[in-house]
Queue: 3 jobs
Job 1
Amino acid sequence: MALSREQMAQWVANELKDGDYVNLGIGIPTLVANYVPPGIDVMLQSENGLLGMGAFPLEQDIDADMINAGKQTVTARAGASIFSSAESFAMIRGGHVDLTVLGAFEVDVEGNIASWMIPGKLVKGMGGAMDLVAGADNIIAVMTHASKGGESKLLSRCSLPLTGAGCIRRVLTDLAYLEIEDGAFVLKARAPGVSVEEIVAKTAGALRVPDEVPEMRF
Amino acid sequence: MALSREQMAQWVANELKDGDYVNLGIGIPTLVANYVPPGIDVMLQSENGLLGMGAFPLEQDIDADMINAGKQTVTARAGASIFSSAESFAMIRGGHVDLTVLGAFEVDVEGNIASWMIPGKLVKGMGGAMDLVAGADNIIAVMTHASKGGESKLLSRCSLPLTGAGCIRRVLTDLAYLEIEDGAFVLKARAPGVSVEEIVAKTAGALRVPDEVPEMRF
Amino acid sequence: MKGFDKRVESYADALAGLSDGMTVLAGGFGLCGIPENLIEQIRVMGVKGLTVVSNNCGVDDFGLGVLLKDRQIRKMVASYVGENAEFERQLMSGELEVELTPQGTLAEKMRAGGAGIPAFFTATGYGTPVGEGKEVREFNGRPHILEHAITGDFAIVKGWKADRYGNVIYRHTAQNFNPCVAAAGRITVVEVEKIVEPGELEPSQIHTPGIYVDRLIVGSFEKRIEKRTVRTAA
Amino acid sequence: MKGFDKRVESYADALAGLSDGMTVLAGGFGLCGIPENLIEQIRVMGVKGLTVVSNNCGVDDFGLGVLLKDRQIRKMVASYVGENAEFERQLMSGELEVELTPQGTLAEKMRAGGAGIPAFFTATGYGTPVGEGKEVREFNGRPHILEHAITGDFAIVKGWKADRYGNVIYRHTAQNFNPCVAAAGRITVVEVEKIVEPGELEPSQIHTPGIYVDRLIVGSFEKRIEKRTVRTAA
């Protein structure tokens, strides 16, 4: 069965290493924070200028001057630092953030990602997504494998305007975890109960399937 | 008679405007701080990261962590701020410093300045001088008009390696105050008792002498 | 002798000289740390044809959104302009020109503007619509695009505390774009919650040194919250 | 779980992995705010052939000067290298390669290195020996030269207070190049006077966020003064 949003978040959370600085995009990536494994401490970077994002505040502690990049009221955890947008993106662009997790509309075998604009629909802007994909060494794109109509979002060439070129090497979908190598998706793991055949059918870009494709465990 | 070092400093000090942010180079420029006219407040920028340099400390207040760009122990005045070298030169390069006063070996009619290197002699480095001359809108070069041997330092073309190209418009020497316009020095004022003829004789670069050349007053 | 006393008497004084067609840089992220009262003063002045550079454009009835409603903005340079119906309408109808700029590039363009760096290379935006028509050059085996600095005729900034010298500190994440904006204005106007006595701000803890600040005023702030998210006590 | 605890046990641990031929960025201005004990540790380790990037090169018997004396430095990138007789000797004899870089360009090159900006244009140095061989381009009617970012294998930094997360603040003008250096090291090592409890440093007042810091150690410092200048009580 396809992974739930929570399972996708949980899977990503298991990739976290103790001491990682992590930027989580809006949507499923945000949920990752709920599944950080015990014994692991990570520091969340919010690109509006907060390193060390904490929990949401208690009602009585809400502070309009303390928000995250999603404009939600938040708190700062122990060890947090707060700085300007220029400094925040210096951190991101300079490759100091260990892991970036973000949603995507499409990815392709060249590591291109499209996540911010659907022509003909209203464009609200890329926010910090282009900086994040260009800046982090390690990015996990989290997305559904295919549209509701069954059309693959893992393509040989993105059809939508790009967020970044050649910057994605890791993709988690609701069906599988894949890495991008030498112009192809490589199937590394499949969701519990999802067949290799289904993944093959729903992957439009070149796909390499190893002899063994382990099933994810939760 | 040629101006003394103190008179040169005093003349420059009279050019200060209330509220100016000023960077003073080593040597005569440093003395300018002693002659700030009453009713005028200026803030001194020291390029190691101090805006609002104060007096030297009392013996008992010396602090190794509080120095100026000349590496002298100093204090910070009311309204001072302290920041990184990157921020300090952002300020300088960005043209936020109103006035820079610095010494020079040579200047020429194109506004070039040479102040940091004499080939064949040991080179100690340009420090912040190249950034300062490229960054300030308003620079006063302070220098002797000619060498002890009588050779002019106001040239048609600098002979020494440059500190900056085309960046000087105002020159105060021990003999005169001149501005650089359209490829020539323009004699704006002469030191008390110094004749226009002496200045003409000691200026190698093109020199325009207006009908009236006022004598400086002290 | 006024010296370094940057305080002005009124919001009218704070924005004196702002006129039609100028470029205004505005601090803030979403509705956090925005110069509320300076924006309101621009509305009151009724200047038109502005180019506004700001990460966001407020909401329909608050922040920069009110200037959109009054059609005072000709062009918007921003990274994200959601949450604003009037914005959508003007964008679709072609009344408003929009230059979408990646958030980090926007911050760096203003930082560069303040720092006298006319242009810089960044990997951000290469291969995307943002990179179209821009010079591409490879560094360390990776393509980068050339981006140019941004400066403004006016910069409007929201600080927390300042002294009369114009030294400013920001509170929590209300810092965001404000220091970048402050450095990049030809005339930089800062409104703060509180003006403190000289000496109260530790020199090495000042976020925006007074050299960047031309005018300073105290305001009172609504500080509207866009997304109120809370947890319940465990 | 070590998490974000950046503290190491010894100076040997602090510089573990530093080896011959590496590039080391060092904070400080003159002898102010220099990482005294980390420099001493490099001396003790005896690594050779280093490229050192630092505004100055210490004096004969203190600071980076001791590494010159031991001929551990192959190349020096600096803006000013006076007050050092051994330096003069090695420079004249050709034993030492020196790349003189304007002070502001040096700071900006390291800031760029830390910020992922591979190159930028600046007017500084145009038309001078510094500009020779560099690309020239006009912006706003003025020629600028292209300068490249600097990063280092190690960055050695002197802070004042830090918490175990590696968040650092600097004291007075001992800040200088230290934050620029801290951001530009592949491995950044900070020595401080004091490690404080988490929460003692106000998040918005931190100069160098812990994300830039890999290793942290407490040292004791001589803090030698280069030019003792005083006034007498009036």
Job 2
Amino acid sequence: MQAEDFDVGAEIAALRQGATGSGAFVTFTGIVREYSSGRADGATSDKQLTAMTLEHYPGMTARTLEAIEVEARSRWPLDACLIVHRYGRLEPGANIVLVITASPHRLAAFEAAEFLVDWLKTKAPFWKLEESGAGGHWVEAKAIDDKAADRWTVAAPGPAQHRKAG
Amino acid sequence: MQAEDFDVGAEIAALRQGATGSGAFVTFTGIVREYSSGRADGATSDKQLTAMTLEHYPGMTARTLEAIEVEARSRWPLDACLIVHRYGRLEPGANIVLVITASPHRLAAFEAAEFLVDWLKTKAPFWKLEESGAGGHWVEAKAIDDKAADRWTVAAPGPAQHRKAG
Amino acid sequence: MKLVYFAWLRERVGIPGESVTPPADVTTVGALLQWLKARGGGYAEALKDLSVVRVAVNQEYAGPDAPVRPGDEVALFPPVTGG
Amino acid sequence: MKLVYFAWLRERVGIPGESVTPPADVTTVGALLQWLKARGGGYAEALKDLSVVRVAVNQEYAGPDAPVRPGDEVALFPPVTGG
């Protein structure tokens, strides 16, 4: 994790140097939206954001990101994977998080990237404080994120098997 | 589609200008591998590739890419999406295809990107000729790609519903 | 009618495309393929296994029962492998 | 024992962390939360709904029955919202 911004193109290029056997690269970039993401109870709110502050728990964040990456590598054949998560005060349009996966198989690259993002959202110790004209507001965890993360807790021996059930 | 290379970072940056409501960007980059991708019958082949030539059907390619994009936009809430597919002779490590999706919802961005790649692989009129020391070899279509594309032919009203069955 | 060929189908036929005037009773994709196959040589070689031949009429995928008419652009190619 | 607080839990408690010495019978996460809550004020406010309180002991998630010992680093925070 870092306070500094990242360059998606440069990170992909760097990862490609070390993954020459991979034909498939998937990236996920999360950025600060211009409007509030709505409340956990489903009520819509269109507050225009002035900033988003990401608080984190430094020691645990590092451990968690490492554990999540190890888990992804144990589940899918990845030549490379990268997680970058920023913290601090970020303005709308700013990068928050970048996940990149590289695999010989595109389904593996996609699934591993989704897994990493789902786990990041539900396990990595980050908290978002939205700032708008109405003041600061801690973003509430969403049930849909828990549900998304739960997809991966059923035994999933590999991409093909997982998809078969879909 | 184009013969020229593309810059993933620049394409993402350009797309972000027009998708300020989106918090989630997913990219898929397909690149030429160093080794043959194996035969359709599952036999492994580790032939080192010297090049990959992509033949295409120009008029139909343009129509198909457009139709695929329209279909993706009708299925998921996308602020932006982009498909770039190269043709001609490409060396190992070269970019072949880039898909980017932008959505307020990460599941939509992921699913739409997977959908676009699956449909590209099974509908867009491109053919790969692998060149190795053993000569030229037309890549055979894979049953696994048809199966991947078939995921999207069942009625899929949206990301949540689709995933629920998984 | 304009025919165009791609990938190994093009290689087996030996030319990228041609103009043809099939008999009046060739009104479907299926009939067109049989008529071409009966020409022998590269055509017979290219069309010996129709399960790996895909057809587009005027740049849209078409099944064996789809109509073909004079003036159409009919493309024959193997299953696609892009992406 | 070192306690650390994050996000709105930190705001309600009013400090980012502190060293505490709970009574000897406070040996689990659950007991520690009850002991803190009984302090009242910001603690009672922060811990009034334990369904939205997550705990990590020595930087690993821990349930109510997990042991806590002198010297542990115990973190209290709301469900995470990164990514």
Job 3
Amino acid sequence: MIFADNVDQPPLLRRPIVFIPALALLFLALLRADPANWPLLRGVLAAAGLGGVLGNGLAAAAVCVLVGANAYVLLRLPVRWQVAMVWVELTLALAALFVSFDLSYAFIRRKLWILVSIGLVNTLLISAVSIVLAFILAMAGAVAKLSQNGVALGVANFYTSLFRGVPLLMQIYIIYLGLPQIGVVVDAIPAGVAALSLCYGAYMTEIFRGGIESIPRGQWEAARALGLSPGQTLRQVILPQAMGVIIPPTGNQFIAMLKDSSLVSVVGVWELMYLARTQGQSEFRHIEMMLTASMIYWIFSILLELGQARIERFFGRAHAR
Amino acid sequence: MIFADNVDQPPLLRRPIVFIPALALLFLALLRADPANWPLLRGVLAAAGLGGVLGNGLAAAAVCVLVGANAYVLLRLPVRWQVAMVWVELTLALAALFVSFDLSYAFIRRKLWILVSIGLVNTLLISAVSIVLAFILAMAGAVAKLSQNGVALGVANFYTSLFRGVPLLMQIYIIYLGLPQIGVVVDAIPAGVAALSLCYGAYMTEIFRGGIESIPRGQWEAARALGLSPGQTLRQVILPQAMGVIIPPTGNQFIAMLKDSSLVSVVGVWELMYLARTQGQSEFRHIEMMLTASMIYWIFSILLELGQARIERFFGRAHAR
Amino acid sequence: SPASRMRPADTFARVRARGVLTVATNAGWQPQGFIDDSGQLAGFDIDVAREIARRLGVKARFQTPDWSVMTGGHWRGRWDLMVGSATPTRARAHVVDFAGVYYYSPYVFVVNRMSTARRRADLDGRRIGVETGTTSEDYIRRHLEIDDPSAPAVVYSVTPGQVRTYANSMMPFDDLRLPAGARLDAVLAPEQTALQAIRSGYPIRVLPGGYAFREPLTVVTDKDDPAWTARIRRVIAAMKADGALRVITLKWYGRDYSS
Amino acid sequence: MPGETSPAPVEIRALGKWYGAFKALDGVNLVLSRGERLVICGPSGSGKSTLIRTVNALESFQEGEIFVEGVRLTRAPETVKAIRLSVGMVFQQFNLFPHLTVLENCALPLRLVRRLPGAAAAERAMAYLEKVRIPEQAAKHPAQLSGGQQQRVAIARALAMEPKLMLFDEPTSALDPEMVKEVLDTLLALAGEGMTMAVVTHEMGFAREFADRVLFMDGGRIIEAAAPTQFFSDPQQARTRAFLRQVLRRD
Amino acid sequence: MPGETSPAPVEIRALGKWYGAFKALDGVNLVLSRGERLVICGPSGSGKSTLIRTVNALESFQEGEIFVEGVRLTRAPETVKAIRLSVGMVFQQFNLFPHLTVLENCALPLRLVRRLPGAAAAERAMAYLEKVRIPEQAAKHPAQLSGGQQQRVAIARALAMEPKLMLFDEPTSALDPEMVKEVLDTLLALAGEGMTMAVVTHEMGFAREFADRVLFMDGGRIIEAAAPTQFFSDPQQARTRAFLRQVLRRD
Ligand SMILES: Nc1ncnc2c1ncn2[C@@H]1O[C@H](COP(=O)(O)OP(=O)(O)OP(=O)(O)O)[C@@H](O)[C@H]1O
Ligand SMILES: Nc1ncnc2c1ncn2[C@@H]1O[C@H](COP(=O)(O)OP(=O)(O)OP(=O)(O)O)[C@@H](O)[C@H]1O
Ligand SMILES: [Mg+2]
Ligand SMILES: [Mg+2]
């Protein structure tokens, strides 16, 4: 249920009528599966002298018992614990997948420090500055898009259309290679930051516009009737309410920015992804480097998510009845 | 103003006190500028036998008169015309910038057909399928995130965190290189589509969740009290209203997807950006190719924007008073 | 992986059964491998791969995955061979197998047409641009380790003042074309790449004084089938011996790069 | 008319409800008999809305029991669904669906819940819009209506479901006296057809004309319950008398 | 008390307003004198809300003129700002700011518009919350209040701005009789201090007790205007008599 209604949904998966057929299906699927793909269990069985169909059957049964027991426990936990358990299990499954690549951990250890000390620092720097600038651009863009001034409207429309419509890479080219044509030679990092800010500013303009438009007209009327200026109304009445609508997609943009900042590497900035790619390239260890970079990105995304949840709670505190 | 209030803002730029100093500043700036950067006008003047400071001054004056006349006309047009004029002028300025690169139009003409017939077709195909799948994933994800079922909540949380947090490139790797490890060899296009859908589904989950949460509780209560099931309430009452909030950021995602689909070229799909890149780099005409691809992307973004505006009008029709 | 260790692949049997040799290659480089105006793959690597397939009695079919995807190993039978101008280095040998060098690519220094540099020595202390992660970067940083006994010994020249690395091979030329050393003084790149840039009208020139070094380029196979690698090595040796490779390099490069 | 043995439409026993530390309902006992017209009045914040919302499972409660048509109100989905099907509700804030026209507001639940085909649903919806005298607004969206028009749509929407029991939360607050009279007549006609109704109202004239029984609440408790004649002429409790003294003369 | 020469708080001449093709106001003429207590009544949809919203520049109009405190209402920002500073408004739908507490709802405009320092704003806001008898709800958010409590917050918020002229759109619709009496007393006290007030209401008892003059509207026109004693005992127009006949007896 979306809003807590005073109804308890029946625990579907807990019923034997759902539970037992599901496990039976799993068993059959595993029986017919290629044993090459679950080597661990098979290894144990082979060591115990069991092979062929019998071994396969035993292995399938073992997996089914494990899965069943896991589901049984999981479905009876309180909600918080369920969430935590699901996270632990899925993370382990993901880790198992990567272990099967037999990666060179020595290589990762050797390169980790460069990735973090140079790449991550540059990535965070570029993203942070760009997000702040994008935020400012988006505010201005949204107000212009909602104004009745044709010039502001036209410029804002053109801006969002161009900078959303054209690939970010092209924007970096325009700024890095195009501006020197009219006499302005920009450095790599400023060029990258400018392109990122403009591009994300355009996306966020649309988000802000949508958020502002979602606030009922009565709020605007009440504030204006009380004598608040349009700017005060926007800042004190409309935006704080629009935040609830603005934050989730803006969180998306923050997280996406973290990774899109890697595009500025084309102009020679050593950010995280660039280092991961190039470090991997010279020894054909792409998977290792990619994985390491991904984990670093993920950690920072999770931090951003936690921050977002806090901010949402802050702005959502009035949503009681 | 955000909501049409019965107030006409004063036309700031039309006042001489703003107008005249602005033009004077422009004149001075141009006087001191490097004439190398506006070759056209200088060329005409040189042909007429005028050079040096006098020529520079004349050129600056000419530009100022042009800009002034343009602003004068622009500010007196009706809103629709203002928007159109601004678009025309900015597009021309952009075009002028590119002309200064002295591009090879013959090369563009020679390659355009390949870009469109192979690249664009693949790009549109992949984006369209992925968007549909992402939409479905996002619906399911949003409902799961808002449910009180810990397992659904945990899975949805993990899903959005992982697939937003990890670079799309890595997701393509996991699916293309990782799945074969557990016995499933996927082809290039399905792998790319799967990665794109999962990634964008995660972003859109957050957007849908935010949209659904933004609808006042009373709507849910009224529908439930009338006997609508939770599913009916969601589909018939909550989502149609949430659309106003969901559409702008979803439009962002559609437009971004168009360009992010280029990442599937790593598994060997010949989509638009890949062709532009390889065609460009093999003859060192990458600016030409990049520009052509950008224009194609932009055209399709504008189509998406127009579609979005239509849909917004459709869902916004009840927002009168 | 443990699974592949359990059942060694028989690539040759698979290729013969299908009648098709699946080749991973690059499509971004003229004349090595590129997509021509009709949308077909063409180029030196393509012809070499076709010739290998012909000698195996099958047809070649091409795929163009990203460099990072092909070179990570674990092909799972997706490709039988990679003919994509890869350089054999010691570190890379841990991940994939090398089935034989099939040509040598010469590297040159390139400067802006307005540059005052006349000799390689004029570049000492200047800003040199290279594509990152390539042998040109290894060379300019002086740690090029080529895993090929037949390769000529590397002689390092030029002591750069600053090395600027780029994520692709064109950005260095874009910076080099800007007037009078705005961002770069010279670029180290394969001769073919430099000539292509010049053909496309870039205001640059190759610095005289011969090749900086010559980079061997090899056919790559997955690590899971040593017998297959040996078979390919024999085919390439035969192509070198009977002059087939020489003919193909002459066709595409106008020079003999095969030895 | 149902026989003697049929269960009471609503039976509430020792109901208690907290909002956090604030006790909004306190030991409420109440039985509604079939066809009864109950009016609930009392000062602002006394728990009137909370009481009727609880009957409809829109608010949870911590103490006591509620039976609707003999079914004990629990958190089981089927129970809640069954109860809501026999109970209609008009909200204090109307809660119209802003994205639908007035007609669609009334027809949607008929189609989805009562499973009427589109045309039949629209026809029945229109009939109820005529009952509340706004058939000409059927094509407008709620935002284009005056306050009183919106309130009448809310009433028509609930009535069109033809429930056995109706709960009204201040159904005449935005209505002019003429309209109040008409709504009163509509409701009286429905009562004649056997519908049970509980109405929260501040409109004492309405209470007097409409009620079989008047309930007076204060501080989450029922202070007094009596037939309207007795309630208005001879209230037993001091609190009730104080409340009624404030009612303004009108004619 | 202002002298004879001061302009009328509101003067409306031949006002006409369309919503699309629908004429919501039609040739309305009206002059309010200082300190006057005007009540506007009439059937639902007759244009009462539209009329008072137009005075405050919340609705545009196509015909006629409006003067507020002698200033002609135009679309110039300064004019609109000046007019809104001297006019307060209580909305039919309250329009409280849901993200602010009750106290902040009242204090925010004092800080931003009247430029009071934070403490003084809170103090004055609290004083008006006491006037409408909900000081104990000051820390809650609007969503946690009952309907009547919300309405009183809206009244307090408008009064705290201490405007010269107040417009009320059904200020007592969600209030119980006791509360109506208290709001009446509050408004009468303010009128005693010279504030001019126009109140849209369906509450005839309130109109009788409060008004200097009662206006009856129908179909966007003013049908009748008279002192309350005359209006209720001897209305001139047939339409008015029909309307008043429907008023329910209450005590
Ligand atoms: N979500 C909530 N959190 C805290 N207190 C609440 C909440 N909802 C209601 N209350 C309080 O519960 C009490 C009863 O509210 P209820 O809405 O039932 O009053 P009511 O009798 O309907 O009043 P009115 O006639 O003004 O509508 C009020 O004091 C109110 O402030
Ligand atoms: N945005 C709109 N578009 C079209 N018609 C409208 C709009 N707003 C109001 N109306 C119509 O204008 C008329 C007058 O509306 P108004 O809100 O002034 O009525 P009212 O006298 O305040 O009624 P009530 O007592 O029910 O609040 C109504 O018939 C209404 O349907
Ligand atoms: Mg209530
Ligand atoms: Mg009204």
